[in-house]
Specification:
zinc ion binding; Riboflavin biosynthesis protein RibD; Eubact_RibD; single chain; Cytidine Deaminase, domain 2; oxidoreductase; 14 strands; 9-stranded mixed sheet; binds NADP nicotinamide-adenine-dinucleotide phosphate; alpha/beta; about 400 residues; EC 1.1.1.193; 5-stranded mixed sheet; Dihydrofolate Reductase, subunit A; about 25% helix; 2 domains
Length: about 400
Amino acid sequence: MATEAAAPTARERERGAMRRAVALSARGLGSTSPNPVVGCVVLDAAGRIVGEGWHRRAGGPHAEVHALAEAGEAARGGTAVVTLEPCDHTGRTGPCSRALIDAGVTRVVYAVADPTPAARGGADTLAAAGIDVEGGLLAEEAAEVNAPWLTSVRLGRPYVRWKYAATLDGRTAAADGTSRWITSGEARADVHRLRAEADAVLVGSGTARADDPHLAVRGVPGAVQPLRVVADTEARAVHPGARVLDGAAPTLVAVADDLPDAATAHLDGHAEVLRLPRAGGHGGGHGRGLDVTALLTALHGRGVRSVLLEGGATLAGAFVAARAVDRVTAYLAPALLGAGPAALADAGIATIADALRLTVTAIERTGPDLRIDAVPAASASAASAASAPAPAVHEPKES
Ligand SMILES: NC(=O)c1ccc[n+]([C@@H]2O[C@H](COP(=O)([O-])OP(=O)(O)OC[C@H]3O[C@@H](n4cnc5c(N)ncnc54)[C@H](OP(=O)(O)O)[C@@H]3O)[C@@H](O)[C@H]2O)c1
């Protein structure tokens, strides 16, 4: 005999709405920088979804504004469920705290407290207006999607995801140098999605020379093209005619700041040239190429909040040595080579006690290959710290 399912409680509806809001927020990845990604769902007084929205691009309306517009009068007496504490400042758009008060919602549930001095305080403003405010619902899920932005706020540099493709024994090419294609078409299509989510895609001069990579996004409808960046200290790897210099996306070639102007003349009109100190100075790298910290600081200064580091092994080693890798995404093909270059070159780690330990966050199949995502073990706790709700409001614990 069929039994009637119990109606969801208000709490279950809010959790469901937050799950939806987190999914909506992810749609903004790659197009909102320097802003965070945010999703919002508005429930009416009876707990039904009446509005949805997400922040689509910097300068455009915030998620709350989209969701409230869709909800209209149905928002009155309802609940706004939002992945980030509503902002309290007037930037290119007005404060969301004001929009929520004007819309007449009586409750606001958010996941992650806003860590920025300029925008924080929305929860207090809402509470002062008599709105019931709660922070911390599904905070970890929301913080994971917003990790690039939260990391860049915390560290003052872009979030770096290092991606590589290797055989099961960790080789990225065969002994004779052949490497196309180690992984499947499905894995390569997935990489285009990662590029679309990133503000910049970076390779070293070795990869630029060996592969003549294009680095733009293909096959992802509506994608915003990332900035293509080549770390080419001596300005010798990127030549006119290189695929990275076509018009598909903007390109920046990072070179040493002591090169004469003539050394970069061939790039004039084809790419922007960024002059940086060589490694071996105050930070980043371990004695070759460009200063990793200076490169990341310069990119951050241009609004880049997330970088997809696509290799090769030498540059990735420098990033690991500089503790500037926040996520590793490995595509492992079920194949063995036994010889050939390893995925990661010297990272300044000489003994097992110093190994960079990672926590695996996801394992999935991409066609015949495996995709493994992992984050430095220490940063798992940092991410939950970043997602801690603001102290001023009522914060029940989620089980
Ligand atoms: N399977 C994969 O996932 C994958 C991905 C990418 C590449 N690859 C393969 O990897 C090979 C290239 O890798 P690679 O290791 O030779 O080259 P790479 O890592 O792409 O580039 C290394 C070069 O980058 C420059 N660089 C600038 N700043 C640096 C810094 N701080 N630290 C270190 N290097 C810095 C250095 O040359 P200058 O100082 O002279 O500029 C260095 O020699 C290619 O065969 C490519 O096919 C495989």
